[in-house]
């Protein structure tokens, strides 16, 4: 292998000064020419050229060349097929030709110009489907020729080029063959500068690891973060070489992709040194390899499978391990995993997932992510499940229609034993004829036993998590109320460890037609006990809020309640009461995070709310209120610390990230806005609760008037006069009779049956007049069951209910409110040409 560093590798030089640029966003994509140069360098080639038959069949024509030495060497544009060039010889004999420097000197034509003593050459025929399509010529620097591994790779490369030529047969030869063929081999390249930690990785490498190009920041730590922990040490020893670690190095390691799939990757790299023997760059290739290490010792394969299944918690996780462990190593085309439930197979994994890749009986039952297939319609599977033994069906076996097309080239049916019964079945199918070698039979048998036990554990885990999810959902609001002048959305995600229930909660409480309370809180811990306390606190806060208490009193009452529970858990809470008509908010905070506001112009701020201690700490704690005004178009965000804080994410940085996401999101769709704020939270350490309210403002502003009733003999008369004056001012005299009757009855009831202050409030909005009478008694007025002709009272509430569109009573702080709504009939428009009439 050459050791001539950056100039020969044809790569972009990374400097420490570029660190700032990398931190600000994704690095630019690696040019395809640089990717080819790096790959050819590792294959020992300085130049690669493709020859195809010309218009005249008796010659080969050069159609493409690539490599870092294209400016140093030249190859003939045309070569006669009858000549003595290495390319013509390989094309005629249909066999690869490998020449070291001494052997190349004996060929009079077809070599690189100017000739050099240390140059070697390889000529590989391009053939596909029994046709000779051309020749690949590679020129290398080692005088001894290409090594066996380099030859093997170049032969694979030639096959990929031949496949492209065959696919384009009948059409003009494409101008680019080397880059598409390299991409089809799925080989990623990189250049790492150890001193800076910066790495230049191409898109293929990022795809192998599972990183979107836009999410890559150019740091090697970002790539290593996807490596399994037990492989990190070995990988770091390669990527951070010591002064004596120059030369070629190889390593196989595992990565965990975002889908949860584990993938084996093979790394080949070499270190380029500076003049003072310090590692300047690490140049490398990464390619997908067999998921199970290719070793003569099958024990290592079973050890890996055991470890992978031990980490698989859910049925879906088990399915992904099975697909990863069987499909690629065995070259299979289909893998299915199904649980046995009564007389049906509940399919948990189908790979590939497209319905048209499976027989009709599977597609007809394709209801959701969990399709069902009846065992009675699949006698082959029924027999295997009954006997509990593996069945291997070779190519051409006539199977029932339910299995037709799954494995035309071979089908393996693996019953999955677990605790004396069969938990399910795994199907592995091939499209091309497949021969079952003894090593595969052993692997399949061992896999079936391990997967059966893992599937049994995962099924129990899924049932436990389903129960936990039902508990969590029962404690949180099923839906949020529709709000006049705004829209509220909420999201909740449990912690991804232990029992997936927690103490985070949220609530939206409609206090009246124009007032709403927003609540978010967090009980310490994420367990069933925390969820229970959370449900009690949510119920208590809602009850105190509906009673009409101001925000500070609501949290004071909830605090005393939690202190009295004598629990070791405490809770944080942020409570906001919003006047939808005016846009004014009263905030109260008990040890919780401050709310965030996105203003109509897109700017965001963290609202400074004066706070008190967490609930459940001090019985006599005070919770001061903070007033804030919202403009129409603003968005209020209440969050819990699970979204903005983690072991590797400081709180201040998390709040800044959330503010940036809030500013970038589109408030036109609050639901999508909430999803964007959650982002990809990965493996959450804590619960996450998020509550958003977009404030739009009231379309119709109500008209209000109020009167404090004097406790005098003629108090009802004064209340009626006030009501009549108000209705005349509002020009709704047509409902005056009904409204005056309601006011008379409700005020009379309040004066006769209660003590303390009585108040009448009138409101006109949306074609309705609302009459509200507040008094100091918490008892709701009782209507008589029977009202006979001789009774002297009890008809008042019956009359009120009769003339009202709606009627009811609600508790308020220090008493109750009895209310009634009367509809205002629509006015008929006056005739366009109306004039004085005649009697």
From TrEMBL:
Record domain PAS: where: 174-240
InterPro entries in UniProt: Bact_Sigma-Reg, GAF, GAF-like_dom_sf, HATPase_C_sf, HATPase_dom, PAS, PAS-like_dom_sf, PAS_fold_3
Record region (Disordered): 1-29
Domain of life: Bacteria
Keywords: Hydrolase
A Pfam family it matches: SpoIIE
UniProt protein name: SpoIIE family protein phosphatase
